[in-house]
Structure formats: structure tokens, C-alpha cells
Amino acid sequence: MSQPTATVRELIREHYTDLTQSERKFANALLENYPAAGLASITIVAAQTGVSTPTIARMVQKLGFKGFPQFHQALLKELQAKVSGPTERRANWATEAPESHLLNRFAKAVTQNIQTTFSNVPSEAFDAAAQLLANTDQTLFIVGGRITHALADYAFTHLQAVRPRVIHLTSSSATWPHYLLDMARGDTLLMFDIRRYESNLLRLAELARERGVDVVLITDQWASPVAEIASHSFTCWVEIPSAWDSNVSTLMLLEALIAAAQEEAWPQTKARYERLDGLFEQTRLFRKPGSQ
After folding, report:
1. What are phi and psi of 220, to 5 degrees?
2. What is the pTM of this model?
3. Is 96 part of a structural domain of the chain?
4. pLDDT on residue 292
5. Sign of the C-alpha dihedral, residues 37, 42, 44, 49?
6. Which CATH number do you get for residue 162?
7. Domain boundary among 54, 84, 114
8. What is the spatial distance between Cα 36 and Cα 79, in angstroms, rounded to a whole number?
9. Which region among 72-76, 98-102, 203-207, 227-231 has the lowest average model confidence (pLDDT)?
10. What pLDDT is recorded for position 24?
11. What percent of the chain has pLDDT over 70?
12. Residue range(s) defining the domain that contains residue 217
């Protein structure tokens, strides 16, 4: 039996309906305190989660692991991956890289990331998130982190054209309390957070949730801690043969959400686009094809 390549969290979600009641008890305890609840010995883990050691042994085998040691190693590997920096990421790829051109390896990795990302997006959650992004009765706030602020900016540029009442939080977390002042129940916070996860984004999400704000999170395959409190969380596969992670699959998912939000209220959005084009005409910001 080969060791699974998906994260333990993903495997639990994939096989959840096949688990017994006692196995689900352990699975739920692990997901509530992930991955820490599974990092001790099987005896300690069983005692802490209130199930028997045979229950744990059966569940990890259902997930595709030969036994608890392999399951334990997978959790440790995930934990290490969450905190790894550019140097460690490059080392992982360099030791396993086949003897082919970087362009070919890069294209293959990116293509696989996109396919895996979209195959793991629940359609119901996607539709619900798109409805939140399109809801003009409430305000939409958008924020990103050190790397993902570029994605947040991209999202704002497009969604601000799709609908009114869109606010882009600045990259300085010192100003975020000012935005929290105006967050109200029913508003939506679109958030981007990839490894290394930022504690200030988690605290912002917690404070927003306390105010009744729906958090829509776009994160990587290891899942930001924000996923535990988000209304909807989408994981994107990001590993490539580089010291840095790729945002290609993240951007693709974002563009799909933007397109879905646009279709949610197309008549109003169409009229908004036409008014925006009229303003572009008046300001003469863009050259028309064939103009001198």
C-alpha cells in the first residue's frame, strides 16, 4: 500500500462517509485541532480523543495508510511544509527533479496544480461564495497578506467593477481596526492567506466573525488556520519546481469566482460596465483601436 499524496485533512473529508461513528469521533477531534491532535503516540492520541487504539488503526488504514506510523509521519511532513521557507522548498524540488528542462517540469507542475485544485472545489460551496461576493445589499471587504496582497488587489479591481460597496483593506495591519469599525453582520470578507500563514490575518478573521461577517478564504493545500472559522474555504495546490509557491491555480480559482459573481446579478453588472465604459470615454484614459 503506497502512502497517499493528499493531505490527511483532505483524505478525511474524502472518506468521511465511510467512517464508523467512533472513527468519525477521532476524525472530528483531529480536524478541530489539526494537526496537533494526531502528533503524539497512538496510545496518547486515543486517550486524548476518547476512542480506542484499534479504532484509530482502522481509520488510518481507511485513509490509505499502512499503519499509524505512516499516518503520524504524514502529519509531521505537513507541519514541516507549513513553516518551510524558500530555501527548504527549493531543496525538496532539487532532490527529486527529473532530468528534463525546467520549462517542462514547471508546466507539468502548474497544470497538475490547476487540475487538482478545481477537482477539489465543492460546487455548492463555490456557488454560495459567489453569491456572497455578488450580494450588493452588503459590503464586500478584500484583504491579502505579504505575498497575496497582489491577488487581493486583482480581486478588488475586478469586483469593484462588478458591483458597488467593495473595500480593499490596505496592506498595513495597523489600519485594519478602522475597517472593522464599518464591518456589519451579513458583510463578507474575502481573504487570501498562504504559507507562511500570517497571524494578523487570523486575528482579523476572528474579529470579523465576531461581528457576524462571512469570511471567504482562498488558501493553499495545507490550509491557513483561518479555514477553521471561515464560512467557505478553498484550497489551491501551489507547489512548483521553485523556491517559491505558485499562485497560478489561486488566480484561476479567483477568476472563476469573479465570473460567477458577475453572472449572479448580470443585468445590474452589465449596466455598471456600460457606465464605467462611459467614464473611460470621458476621461480618455485608453486609446481606441485605430485612433491617432
Report:
1. -100, -175
2. 0.70
3. no
4. 54
5. positive
6. 3.40.50.10490
7. 84
8. 9
9. 98-102
10. 86
11. 89
12. 106-283
